[in-house]
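note to self — DONT lose this again. spent like an hour looking for the file last time. sequence + predicted structure for the chain T wanted, 314 res
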Amino acid sequence: MSDQQTVTTISARGLTRSFGAHTAVNCIDLELKRGEVLGFLGPNGAGKTTTMQMLTGNLAPSSGAVSICGIDLLDDPARAKAKIGYLPETPPLYRELNVDEYLLLAAKLHRVAKAARRDAINIAKQRCGLAGAGKKLIGTLSKGYQQRVGIAQAIVHSPDVVVLDEPTVGLDPNQIREIRSLIRELGGKHSVILSTHILPEVEAICDRVQILHHGNLVYSDTISALKEFHSGRTVLLGLRRPPPPAELAALPGIAAVEKVSATLFRMQFAPNHDPTDELVKRSVGQGWGLYQLAPAQTSLEDVFVNLTQREENA
């Protein structure tokens, strides 16, 4: 990992926000390094937008702390916010302005030096695929291009951290592909936090993922680790004459048994415990008629559902 990637750009500890008796976000920890794209994944109402608002200084936490490039967001908000670019779920666009006018306004608001504004605007337009759209009214642009303008205003001051809340909502498949490509490119120079409830989005864009459910953090790791979370400890067992599922669940090291069909079972086993030898031995000894024993291919959706259901049960 390069020195650039080891620089921590955003750190949050114990981030909590309550609205009356309702806790929208409960004690979230987060750390992001330069060059990373972090995905906040969760169903609608999980607390993603509330977390984004606290990380960008638009909503005060009930408790906890946030620092941006080592600057405490609560103690020195002006300096900390200067290092953040933010695209809310609804882009803050002025439809009656053209792209150049709007980005000039954004550059002024972000306190870009007067002599540097024109170059900053041109660079933002170039990176967001807006080089030929400077004189076009924002209100006449497609939603995909309006999203590009929204991202351009978030990066016009070259911030260390770019926070994007649901950036592809309402876009068509081609627009989604273009915005995802843009976000991936942004991750090369900035730290990017991407909030979404779309599973393929996280898989296509992000390096790491944090899954929220009812305001609680239920998972935090890399995308590859997430994919392996269950597939590395789950097997599919096919038996022509299977015993009751409870008998399979009672085998040593078996954590859970799911009946897929009359003769096929998905079996999750404990860490550092491979049950394949025991399953073969029992199948032969008990005459279960073993016809399949293989690692289960677990999709990102399967893992997400399992994690959120586990949180519901807890």
